[in-house]
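Homework help board

Subject: predicted structure for assignment chain

Our instructor gave us this sequence and asked us to write out the predicted structure in token form, then describe one feature. I got the tokens but I'm not sure how to describe them. Can anyone check?
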Amino acid sequence: MTERPSSTSLPPAPDQALLTRCAEAETCADPSSVMTLLGESDGAGGGFTSYRSTFAAGAVGAPAHFHTKATELFIVISGSLRVLIGEEITVLNAGDFLAVPPHTPHAFAAAPGSEADVVFVFTPGMGRFDYLRLLSRVMRGEADPKEIAASSERFDNHYVDSPVWRAELERSA
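My token output:
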């Protein structure tokens, strides 16, 4: 088994287990959330990326987007997470699980008045830790938002306009 802190850029060998100790995991923070980078691998079947996000009450997570290659999994540990799936809004609560397949527009935010603690898993992973680090720098004003748009193919993150999601965020503001 390979035990490495998430801050190392080298993924484990494809035939080795990966263990990340919580106390050693790299974190990325912005004013409304903390992302704990749990692990990524380029293993058989395309690998994975997994991280945990804790959102402040009502904090907005990701705007409407889709992935062309990855399935994104959501596991809500505590609190409530508002999610756009296609054209529908739903609320995930503690213990809920959601799998969003490729090409499905989705977005998420902590539910109004609620914090959210969520584990995200992408498969395949595609080295998304670098995307999360970039996102964190942009949210803190340390990087230009244009860098995110320029990275859409590399990280399989394709942003779209969603009038449904915009209306949802305006309604709860």
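Reply (TA_rk): Your tokens look well-formed. For the description, you could write something like this. Residues 129-139 form the longest helix (11 residues). That's the kind of observation they're looking for.
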